[in-house]
Amino acid sequence: MPVSTRSQIFNSEDENGATTTMTEQTENHKMAQALRNPHHGLKEKLKSLTLLYEQQKLASKPQNFKPQDQKSPPISALDRNGSIKLEEIESRNHKFPPIAPINRNNLSKNQETETILPPSSSEKSPKMKENSIPNSRVTKTYVIPQSPNPQLDDAKENVAANGDRIVGFMCPRKAPVSSTVARKLSLGSQIDGRRRDRRLSLVHEKDNPLFQKQSNQNNRISVFVRLRPMMKREKEANSRSCVRIVNRRDVYLTEFSSDNHDYLRLKRLKGRHFTFDASFPDSASQLDVYSTTTADLVEAVLQGRNGSVFCYGATGAGKTYTMLGTVENPGVMVLAIKDLFTKIRQRSLDGNHVVHLSYLEVYNETVRDLLSPGRPLVLREDKQGIIAAGLSQYRAYSTDEVMALLLQGNKNRTTEPTRANETSSRSHAILQVMIEYRTRDASMNVINRIGKLSLIDLAGSERALATDQRTLRSVEGANINRSLLALSSCINALVEGKKHIPYRNSKLTQLLKDSLGGACNTVMIANISPSNLTFGETQNTLHWADRAKEIRNKAYETNEELVQETESDADQAKLLLEVQKENRELRVQLARQQQKLLSLQAQSLAANTSPTPASVTSILTPPSSNKQRPKTPLRATPEPNKRRGTEETVRELQMVVKTLEGEIERVKKDHALQLKKKDEKIRELTDKLSKGVRSRDEGLKSIVTRSNIRNKDANTGDIKTPGHRFLSPAPAAKKRSFWDITTANSPSVTTLNGRKTRSHVNDEPAAAAPAPSMLLQLAHPCMWSVLILGLHIANYIIQPGFARQRLSPFKQ
Ligand SMILES: Nc1ncnc2c1ncn2[C@@H]1O[C@H](COP(=O)(O)OP(=O)(O)OP(=O)(O)O)[C@@H](O)[C@H]1O
């Protein structure tokens, strides 16, 4: 990886510890232009410098500072806007490094200068050509923030982890080489430097949300540095710590004199200072790293903005540890997914979230699906950005599912032991989590938001010697380095504001197109090792991280889609809902009616099948008989209907009873009348009989006389012939049968002389009727008495039976 940094440490003193800034931006620009011109002669340079010096001298007068000071906003204003202005100034003056150049005159022991070889003219954009620093070597001065206790700091910073004195911080107490140039450069940026300091003092508090907001507003890539602990292997190799982190923000890199093999610059290359958004010492926890670097991004992804986090660094510097971590100490990927699902769960009530994820690797310039390995994937670009055609996407419902997929993907990832790292990742891995959110706003519009979070664990840049030579590992290493070189080219082009960004130089940069320079919140975590044995790699990493700070992504774009429904649609939807509601209600009503009908049918069925309705039974039977009432069908009968039915039945029955009672009365009267008539007839007959007996007695005497004459019995002297019986006189009154008494209308009975006789009996006039036999005539009065008595008894027996017969209407 190319490094364009040439560092030189100077030792200067600034009493106030504040950086100096340029007072006149325009003059500074002119100067810078003059200095940048590669064809400028030494004389002209000197002229310009002298001119600039004069101008600065004038500007440094108190009356000249006043308006500038007035212009500079108060701290409170800076809180809100100052940072933006600073960033704007920074963006206009790409020549300025992240740390403000200072007045060479005021250089203190805490200040360092660095000589930088600017990028080649071919890489410059037209804008850069205008305002960039000259193509010649430029010396910039950096300020090391003064510690409240310099002596203690000195003592600390000059002692390495193993107790050795660090050369880099021991020797830079020198006079500046070119104080004039340095002062002239730094004068112009004095105020700027003050502003920056103020801003820095705010952002020193890493938890200050203002900083996050400001950095988000600027949409600059956030760059963090993480130092890993010294490894056992490194300790065993007697390595020393060459990195020191101060205030969780500043990184001091020191080169030990023993490590410097550049004898020409032995005295100059002693150390460097970098400032990042935050820097994590080796004691920082995974959670600390996550909450500072990625937590805000996760929140933004849920708001529909894309976010990317990538780890960059040399092999074995701790990238995979930071991104994946271990089971005990999960890394950014795991913590981000956990946080994501927690946040989704908290918001699950106000809409639907759908989480999809994919996991791929770029190995030896081929893209492979880690979740369903197969053939290499082809990258395509469409309106949405770069996509890997055929990449599998899994829907995840919980953190556990994502973890399982992550584990599965990591098993498929190419890792090999190398000399530098036992578990070296030989590929760049990209885990992409897509969160789709769908809800309705107050006006029933559908809001569809999609946020994409890319978590990238890059393979480590490595020197061929650090790994294996002429093996597959070296081929891998070459490819890794090539893709990282492409990445650094893209960073350079982006920083320099070039129109063409060479994303297509590698698969990695193609995939990172969204994250670098796209509409995306991007976080870069630069992992470094503390060992002085890897000083070169660490310096390289810090350099590119420092460069990346200047990349500005596109303005925020929220992937939010508002699907507005037309009024008619809304109306129709409303109508449909109403109709559905009405339909439901009608169905309920219908069910109720059907239930009623069924119960009525059951009731009527029960009433028809039962010998007496329950109600009637209850009325006609004593209360103890309630147990025998029919049960189920009647329970469903509504109470008023039941009562009404009962009343009707009772009324009917009462009428029946009345009719029957009337009938009984009529029958009784009839009977009484009949009895009376019969009694009269009996009496009349009795009278007639008594009269007839007397006359017959008289006639009998004569008959006997005549019979004696006709047939005389041999024994008795009476005449007995076969025809004698027939010649016996006809009975005057036939013997009355049961029917003769009870039914006057019997068809077989005819009335003869007021008497009822059987039809087979010859109608003979009583006068003409033969006289009854002597026996009958004698028995006649007794027979009639018995008959009358029998008739009375029979009448009383028959009456209740008849009534009973008529009182049973239900038997019909
Ligand atoms: N912050 C840390 N705390 C404790 N151990 C760490 C830390 N960072 C890294 N390590 C350890 O250092 C070793 C190398 O780390 P890691 O594999 O993450 O490096 P890498 O940058 O991913 O390397 P490569 O690019 O070769 O894959 C691992 O054993 C890891 O456990």
Features:
812 residues, alpha+beta, Kinesin, 3-stranded antiparallel beta sheet, 22 strands, binds adenosine-5'-triphosphate
Instruction: Give the class-level CATH name of the largest domain.
Output: Alpha Beta
Bound molecules: adenosine-5'-triphosphate
What's the alpha carbon Rg, rounded to whole Å?
64 Å
| Number of domains as seen in the coordinates | 3
Shape: rod-shaped
Number of strands: 22
- Assigned CATH architecture of the largest domain: 3-Layer(aba) Sandwich
User: How would you state the average pLDDT, rounded?
Assistant: 63
Helix fraction, binned, reads 40-55%
Number of helices: 24
The rounded distance between the terminal residues' Cα atoms is 118 Å
- State the CATH topology of the largest domain: Kinesin
Structural class: alpha+beta
Strand fraction: 15-25%
* CATH homology group of the largest domain: Kinesin motor domain
Uncertain runs are 1-26, 61-217, 612-638, 699-779, 800-812
How does the major sheet shape up?
10 strands, mixed
